[in-house]
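ok so I'm stuck.
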Amino acid sequence: MTVYGFHASHEQVPPGDLLAAVVRAEQAGFGAAMCSDHFSPWSERQGESGFAWAWLGAALQATGLTFGVVNAPGQRYHPAIIAQAISTLASMYPGRFWAALGSGEASNEHITGQLWPRKELRNQRLRESAEVIRDLLNGAEVSRDGLVTVDRARLWTRPEQRPDLLAAAVSPETAQWCADWADGLITVAAPIERLREVIAAYRDAGGTGQACLQVHLSYHQDEDEALRIAHEQWRTNVFAPPLCWDVDSVAVFDQAAEHVQPEAMRDAVRVSSDPGRHVDWLAEYAELGFDAIYLHHVGTDQSDFIDVFGDRVLPRLEVTAS
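replied:
not stuck anymore, here's the structure
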């Protein structure tokens, strides 16, 4: 049965409020959680950017949920440091933590002052980083001289069971490419046929483990307000790669989104005041074979979304699945 989780957006909600929201989500019936890991929001209007790794320790302690995070090792983070962070959380909360690894976006990574590499080099750096993280979690002493440099690193605190390292992929090509090194896959909502292609590319290339989906949605009891929220908060997130990978500042994202019309949001965000419509959308995603679906309400106020979905969406999805 598909697990429905809560996505915690550090770009939009202060960390203390986000912690209260994930506690509320567990009480409402959400079965898991995940969060973003950004240095910068996507827009001045979002206006937040808490440190995911500090927050995750508090969230794991405050709830009994499993948690995941999407991380980009190799530039802003040295992979040995990420391995240490993963190892510590997995040691403290056995069986409740996973990390997904991706190639990142310039908006977060440019802060180091290093050159933002071409996509093929970012993928190569990601693969090297994933190998470093996996080897360290398996107990090896690691040295590397490549796109990532490591000198005799060793983790002294390790969990009894290595947590899963998923790959973040939005295209069939990337899903196929990561199948031989990832323990699972996470992608973001797209047209149904596109998602089917992504899953098939991963599985056909030998990819194993769970397949996860992040869904951006906007719920409000008033349809116009649901659309307004999506447009106000998420219109800088409608751009396809490579633009979304390569823009390196909030100011440029906001400028690029000046002419995005409210109705255009419906292509990137599931917008509806009808809980039943959200049930239908989510059930359609589940039928594709996703093991976990993480719901991201793109508004800054999470309370009504959590309560309504806990009362009127999640129970109906359970009935649909059975």
